[in-house]
Amino acid sequence: MKIKVLVIDDSALIRSLLTEIINSQPDMEVVATAPDPLIARDLIKQTNPDVLTLDVEMPKMDGLDFLERLMRLRPMPVVMVSTLTERGSEITMRALELGAIDFVTKPKLAISDGIREYADLIADKIRAAKQARISTLAPRSTVPTPGAPQQNASLRNPLISSEKLIIIGASTGGTEAIKSFLMEMPPDCPGILITQHMPAGFTRSFANRLDSLCQISVAEAQGGERILPGHAFIAPGDKHLLLARSGANYVTELSDAAPVSRHKPSVDVLFDSAAAQAGKNAIGVILTGMGKDGALGMRAMKEAGAYNFAQNEESCVVYGMPREAVAHGGVDEELHLRDMPSRVLAYLMANSSQSLRV
């Protein structure tokens, strides 16, 4: 049975192009299109779509307002269609917090050599959205209660070695999973490197949003930064992020090499570099996402002595990348997302204490 898609966009040209792209896929079809959320509301009842594509900025009702009401009254998978602007990226980050599964940028109206690749990207996002766990799509709180103590503040341990690093990979649903994880990290946690599948132009807004919410410093990697405790670096949307060394220090490194497993940035590239440069000092974390990027890299980390965690199926938006990492033998523990931060910190403290006693 084909995936039924409802396209919501105020541009007739965009609606036409998205319809053409989606209908060209053998496993999906556009059952209706709408120029605004008010018309879409009735079409949802009439067509009962499996997935919505939703423009973030529209007349009559803002895309975010519509999304918030939809996720409260009739939760369903939504893929946002975003403009490649600073405002567009900020709105998109908010849409993901409200429950959208993923997003794509606005397609170029002129047919080009890249249209097939763009069509494949949209199709992959829709397939992932169809597989998403609806129970995870409720609107999420984004700001801690003022004055409330952080859950893991008591887990701080000055004896944790500065050589330790946390290496994270994620894809579909990963922006919220990463946020959930990082918000529990104390200011003196080990340095963190993150690859999240996300296009250029959005990773900086993502990093800035996290930096405003977390106790640790979060930034988009520029390349050459020293990786210190209490700092996290996110791969830019158009570069691979690698762990490198400069003398006795860990530093970030960016690569403009070709995509790996169709991804740039690639989780495998980051994990492979962590295996080579950090070995047993690395702690791997693979979170929700579609596909298998990161599975081979996580196994390489484990073989180099790292200890690895995977998000379990129950708490994943899409249990693809963690499943593949487990199947390839690279995972030591599978955990619910809510338990991941405290367990990682507990492992770090126990491991550091053992090292000091030896």
UniProtKB/TrEMBL annotation:
One Pfam family linked to the record: CheB_methylest
UniProt keywords, alphabetically: Chemotaxis, Cytoplasm, Hydrolase, Phosphoprotein
GO biological process, one term: chemotaxis
Catalytic activity: L-glutaminyl-[protein] + H2O = L-glutamyl-[protein] + NH4(+); [protein]-L-glutamate 5-O-methyl ester + H2O = L-glutamyl-[protein] + methanol + H(+)
CDD domains recorded: CheB_Rec, REC_CheB-like
Post-translational modification: Phosphorylated by CheA. Phosphorylation of the N-terminal regulatory domain activates the methylesterase activity.
Positions of the CheB-type methylesterase domain: 159-351
EC number: 3.1.1.61, 3.5.1.44
Active site: 171, 197, 293
GO MF term set: phosphorelay response regulator activity; protein-glutamate methylesterase activity; protein-glutamine glutaminase activity
UniProt xrefs under InterPro entries: CheB-like (IPR008248), CheB_C (IPR035909), CheY-like_superfamily (IPR011006), Sig_transdc_resp-reg_Me-estase (IPR000673), Sig_transdc_resp-reg_receiver (IPR001789)
NCBIfam families in the cross-refs: PRK00742.1 (NF001965), PRK12555.1 (NF009206)
Domain note: Contains a C-terminal catalytic domain, and an N-terminal region which modulates catalytic activity.
Protein name: Protein-glutamate methylesterase/protein-glutamine glutaminase
Native organism: Methylovorus glucosotrophus (strain SIP3-4)
